[in-house]
Amino acid sequence: MALLKPALVAAATALVAATAAVLVPGAPEAEVAASPAPPASAVFHPVVREAAARTGDYAAEYTVYRPADLDRVPGRLPVVVFGNGACRHTSNDELLTVETLLAAHGFVVVAVGGFDEPALTENGSPVPAVITDAITWAERENGRPGSDLRHRLDTRRIGVTGHSCGGIEALVAGADPRVKSVLSLDSGFFADGTLGYGRENLRKLHTPVLFVDGGPADVAYENSGANYDLVTVPAVRATNPAAGHTGFVYGQRDGNPDPSVREEAVRVLVDWFDFTLNGNRTARGSFLGAGCGLCATPGWTVTSKNF
């Protein structure tokens, strides 16, 4: 187990926002009270990055990101499984910062790739089992005697996401009945079924889905939009043309180093899973309604349907 460096932990604090009050349903205005659970964006935990216990024969090795002091987290934690760009199934370096920041806001992230594998230029093909096997790993770990995560995970609240080719893996895995939310990051199925999975898979989705892309300079821009148009489940599309295909991951705005665009993207991930897994009304307002918070963020365009 490794506690993350203070500099990386400090970077996460840029995402912390003020806790918002929520109306208690049915209560008179005079009895307005703060939500028992503040928005995930208003919560920050130091994070541990550790190798996933090898408890079975899975399609990949996994790395886990989680709040360091589980006793300071009330209740059980939702789980988010994260797939890599280029369908890298060996290394877990590409999304390290994004996954750390997501975990800092109260999620257990099970990420594809080994804990101590070097950064590789691996270029794979979609294997959706790397996502669904990670869900199975979390279920087993939640019940395994001796596990730090025993009885700490809420396996009824599982989200899947992935960047680029990893997003295709997540979209296919979204058909799994254990999944409660899907996020496609700079991704989407090709019309001709390139990479082995076509847009007919969109009909198998049964949960809310968010498509995030980096605008016309993003190679996934067309697929992201077309996939959003085709889905029949509740869906949101969020676009920031300054990010291109990798700006959200590497912290680049218009091709120049700018960590703030990555922080904005992480806030989108945090709010989406807080909304769809935790049911947080403040997080919901980031995407829906007249006061849509992300809509008011410079550079972002947001559309939604079927809610």
From TrEMBL:
Domain PET hydrolase/cutinase-like: 63-185
Sorted UniProt keywords: Hydrolase, Signal
A Pfam family: PETase
InterPro entries documented for this protein: AB_hydrolase_fold (IPR029058), PET_hydrolase/cutinase-like (IPR041127)
MF GO annotations: hydrolase activity
Residues making up the signal peptide according to the UniProt record: 1-20
PANTHER family: CARBOXYLESTERASE TYPE B DOMAIN-CONTAINING PROTEIN, CHLOROPHYLLASE-2, CHLOROPLASTIC
Protein name: Alpha/beta hydrolase family protein
UniProt source species: Amycolatopsis tolypomycina
Source lineage: Bacteria, Bacillati, Actinomycetota, Actinomycetes, Pseudonocardiales
